[in-house]
Amino acid sequence: MNTNSNVYTIIYTTVIVVVVAAVLAFVSTSLKPMQNANIKAETLSQMMTAAGLGSKEDFSKMGNDGVLGTYSENIEQAFTVNLAGERTGELKTAKDEIELIDNLKPQNKAILAAGEPQLPVYKFKSGVTVVPVYGAGLWGPIWGYIALEEDLKTIAGAYFDHDSETPGLGAKIKDEPSFKAQFEGKVFNLENPSNPFDIVKGGAPEGAMDKIDAISGATMTCNGLNQAIDIWIGAYANYFSKAAAAQAETTEEE
């Protein structure tokens, strides 16, 4: 075949493209289990950081296997609920079978559409319950995990992350320990499920239990996080109310 002909060039190019595509597909498929394991371990480490079981640095040093083991040892039960606060499914917690709802975007859409989201609830043996939040920041998605005390309204801890917020400003929702520390001991106003919490520009009023200070210079990111918290905590409000009532009833019987 004439190697200088157009036909040869087309055939050669096609073969190269097919071979490269096949190699990339093989590599992607081969790496998928590792990528999934990394995502699962990252999600668990964020959740357990909020729950006060260690720092993000502690979990990073453990490696994926250590993170999965720590979660399995400390989780009491994990399940999903709907907007009515009804339990809809169980999530496996054994180390080799851990199930998570870690793709929060579809659940966020379902909440906003008043549809049928599967809202995950993670109850730890320490007594805290962890739930996620998800929303839009200035440049991309923001999300996090909030740990609640046994009354299901007092905040025990929080961890937030982002996709592409501005370094030194909006990125502080993840990078600034003092911002996350403000949440500890604060209380969600579940009597107002459409606005249970506020991140206040210019400073929260002294003594306000359902408000914290916003990050200076990061108004849009804080507004996005505030909205995410209101939407997701509002979505859990019926569950929190029913679970707290059931717990109070059990305590009275004892």
List keywords for this structure.
254 residues; alpha+beta; six-stranded antiparallel β-sheet; two-stranded parallel ribbon; 8 strands
N-C termini distance: 90 Å
Q: Briefly note the structural class of the backbone.
A: alpha+beta
Instruction: Look at the structure and give the mean pLDDT.
Output: 90
Q: Give the oligomer, counting copies of the same chain as homo and different chains as hetero.
A: single chain
Shape: globular
Number of strands: 8
- For the largest sheet, list the strands in their spatial order: 2-1-3-4-5-6
Number of domains: 1
Helix proportion: 40-55%
Q: Write the element-wise H/E pattern from the N-terminal end onward.
A: HHEEHEEEEHHEEH
Mind telling me the C-alpha Rg?
22 Å
Count, helices: 6
Q: How would a crystallographer describe the biggest sheet?
A: 6 strands, antiparallel
Sequence stretches where pLDDT stays below 50 over 5 or more residues:
none
* Beta-strand percentage range: 15-25%
